[in-house]
Amino acid sequence: MRLAVPAAFCLLTLAQGQTPVFRATTNLQSIAVRVTDKHGVAVQDLSAADFSLFENGRRQKIAFFAAEGQPVSLVILLDASRSMEFGGKLERARALLAPLTRGNRPEDEIFLVPFTDQIASFEPLTMEQRLRPPRASPPGNRGSALYDALASALCHLRTAANVQRAVVVVTDGVDQHSRLKLEQLTELVRSSSAQIFTVGLYNKVERQVYWRRHGTVTIAGLREIDNPVTVFRRLAKESGAESFFPSSDQDFQKALDRISERLQTQYTLAYYPARIDTVRRIEVKVGRKGIDVSARDSVGSGIADGGVHFEGAGCTISPRDHPYPWESHVTSTASSPVIYQENFSDPRSGWPDRRFDLVNHLAAYYSKEGYEVYRRCADCMLSGKATRGVVTVTGDAAVAAYGPWWNNFRASATIEGKWTDGASSVGLVFDFMEDGYYALLLPKPQKDKVSFQLVRGRWNGERSDLVPRRDLVPAEGRGKLHRLGVESVNGRIRLWVDDRYAGIVQDAQLRYGLVGFGAFGNARMIVHQLRVEALP
User: Mean pLDDT, to the nearest integer, of 278-303?
Assistant: First the structure.
């Protein structure tokens, strides 16, 4: 179903000392407002008469007012992807979140929702769980679908028990797997009354990269994704909240304390807008000198229902209305539930389309001949340094990967290699993920012989030869086109080169990931066909 306009609230009882009683309506717009003095201290003695609310420059009648200390409906979205497990980061985050999960009032409604590429169920914590939050994790673990998780949280908050609503996102990653685009999520945020507080747990190298860039950054696989720093600041601004980028556990705790303090000292105003199907500018003023007023500066959406569709009666993003680009290339049979075939004739199918990079001398793009992956390296080393989440080059390689994630699978590809020096290789990359990758490579031919090797690479620059360079027998050339095949089942890897069985390796260090292509050293490759099918 489409997302409806968020249910707001109408005050039935406003007597002094009484608890407000609300009934749901469909067009009452609420605004969270923070008021501070020149020292940044919250001003907590204001009444409704002190506030003026303007929409598109026209003063509005305040239909509802609530002072500080009101109960909150809060969703805490906790990234549970593999990167959060490194160094015990996930467990430390859970521990530091404890004061936020406890809340401040019995009437608080708290949801602790882990997410990866999927999202856990939305169930409010019981009073006992608020003191000892459960450690449940979502079923997926293939990176972060942050935009989809946020959209689901906003959807669930439509029926929240309290007028004050907020989402706190804690993540160390970037959005890689969402069906929604940033603009769609932004429209949804404007349509919601909830605030979005974001906490990005990035290391020093990642922060340097994100602060240096603006709109997008390049991650492993040559994919361009939204810069999370830009995204978090935008979402916080649109919802009248704040974004944080702590560099230590102490900074993280300060950020959470700041969020908790803000939720307890905000005022809530609400009014009845004349229209709800447009974006309207909002301004809140307070009739006192020497104070600062913080609130969202716009509400509503020019797109019906924010342009976001949910599945059935739930809050799962609709695959039909928001498909991944590769899903149009997926079929199924009685023997395999997922078969992905790509001939690279349509640039809209979603593979990285990155033209020549003058800094790293690499590229991956659609061409008239097929899909090209290119790497030029003047002084290539067989190892290199890369960092999870911000990789543009894997040592001496350009790697492009996309499509479904695979566990047990069979893949084949027809490629054309163009080598420059003796250290060059091109080939099929698989189980490509944040831990590393496997690559079935064709080195530059020597005396028209066809050779191959299987390597396991890591983002710290390590590379292991699982099958050292080996000539096919009989040693015959095959011209420019070669067909590579891989079958990976529970750590058992079988190899084919030019339809000849090339051996078997047992290695379970990488167990799932993307399929893609890599050009190592001074090399260029053209991919003509790719077929991957899921196996039991």
Answer: 91
**Is 282 within 8 Å of 299 (Cβ atoms)?**
yes
The DSSP string of 198-226 is EEE---HHHHHHHHH-SSEEEETTTEEEE
Amino acid at 425: S
Phi/psi for 81 (5° steps) reads -70, 170
Bridge partners, residue 451, by sequence: 471
Structure-token match 């015959």, residue found: 476
Q: What are the residue ranges of helices labelled H in 269-314?
A: none
Whole-angstrom CA distances from 389 to 228, 258, 284 are 11, 28, 39
Q: Which of the 8 DSSP states describes residue 89? A: H
Listed residue (154, 182, 207) closest to 3, CA to CA: 154
Average pLDDT score over the chain: 85
Per-residue pLDDT tens digits for 28-86: 889 999 999 999 999 988 999 999 999 999 999 999 899 878 899 999 999 998 888 77
**By CB neighbour count within 10 A (0-12 exposed, 13-18 middle, 19+ buried), where does 418 fall?**
middle
Residue 147: enclosing H or E segment and its boundaries?
helix 146-156
Among 115, 87, 113, 81, smallest CA distance to 100 is for 113
CB 81 within 8 A of CB 143: yes
Give the span between the Cα atoms of 402 and 353, in whole angstroms.
11
**In the structure, what pLDDT confidence band is assigned to residue 365 with cuts at 50, 70 and 90?**
very high
What are the phi and psi torsion angles at 208 (to 5°)?
Answer: -60, -40
Both structure tokens of 24? 């749901």
At residue 431, what is the residue type?
Answer: D
- The yes-or-no verdict on residue 315 having pLDDT over 60 is yes
CA distances from 407 to 95, 328, 342, 489 (A): 32, 20, 19, 8
Q: What string of DSSP letters covers 235-275?
A: HHHHHT--EE--SSHHHHHHHHHHHHHHHHH-EEEEE--S-
- CA–CA distance, 362 with 343 (Å, rounded to integer): 22
Residue scoring higher pLDDT (533 or 86): 533
Return all residues near 17 (Cβ < 8 A) that are at least 6 apart.
none
CA distance 329 to 320: 14
| Residue scoring higher pLDDT (536 or 304) | 536
User: Between these two residues, 392 and 458, which has the higher pLDDT value?
Assistant: 458
Nearest CA to 361 among 335, 379, 346? 379
